[in-house]
Design brief:
Layout: E1 2-5, H1 10-22, E2 29-32, H2 43-48, E3 56-58, E4 64-66, H3 68-78, H4 90-119, H5 130-150, H6 164-175, H7 188-198
Parallel strand pairs: 1-2
Antiparallel strand pairs: 1-3, 3-4
Helix pairs in contact: 1-3, 1-6, 4-5, 4-6, 5-7
Length: 205
């Protein structure tokens, strides 16, 4: 199997952390794609993912799976004896799915929009709107406060158990630094959680 990724991008990092937690990093060959140079826009890459995004998982039979959580779900099902990161019972799976969607829609997406529209990183292939970038930055800061309050009474986002929701939130907090949004001194619960995740070996992959 191969994973086409950009090592510095947040979505591939989410997949790497997921695989590391499951002990599966050695099951895939990682192929670096330089998105700054537009390697994700080549016909060869577009054939693997017409959305032109990383990461992409290519199975041994040539099947290509795009989208971060789709890739993670593949490994969750394909390797059932590895640690569960998407829940076991119906209630656990539903709760984790709820948080994955909240983090995706209200945290990760605004962070990405803030980056794209504030920095002009992709101005060669899109039209940045700085005002929209600034508005998205405010949404991200608000979500920092929301997470801080939520984590006041639990060690992990979904309670006592580390899950994919923690991976996705952790990588988004880290990614927000590129637009100068950071955990504030008063957000002690969020900081303690962040330090807890950062201490895990998977956070360094």
């Amino acid at each position: 199997m191969k994973i086409y990724e950009t090592a510095t991008a947040p979505n591939p990092r989410r997949v790497r952390m997921f695989l590391a937690e499951k002990g599966l990093l050695d099951q895939v060959e990682r192929v670096e794609i330089d998105i700054a140079k537009g390697e994700n826009l080549t016909p060869e890459f577009v054939a693997r993912n017409p959305m032109k995004k990383v990461p992409v998982l290519e199975l041994d039979d040539g099947t290509c799976i795009a989208e971060t959580m789709a890739i993670c779900r593949y490994f969750e099902v394909a390797y059932p004896t590895t640690p569960k990161l998407l829940g076991d019972s119906a209630a656990e799976q539903a709760l984790i799915e709820q948080w994955l969607r909240w983090i995706e829609f209200y945290f990760f997406m605004p962070t990405g929009m803030c980056f794209q529209h504030s920095t002009g990183y992709f101005k060669d292939r899109m039209t940045p709107y700085p005002e929209w970038g600034a508005e998205c930055g405010k949404q991200v800061s608000s979500y920092f406060s929301f997470l801080d309050q939520h984590l006041a009474t639990r060690p992990y986002i979904c309670g006592e158990q580390f899950t994919a929701a923690d991976i996705n939130a952790f990588t988004t907090v880290a990614f927000a630094r590129v637009v100068n949004i950071r955990i504030q001194p008063e957000q002690q619960h969020l900081q303690a959680w962040y330090d807890r995740i950062k201490a895990r070996p998977s956070a360094s992959v």
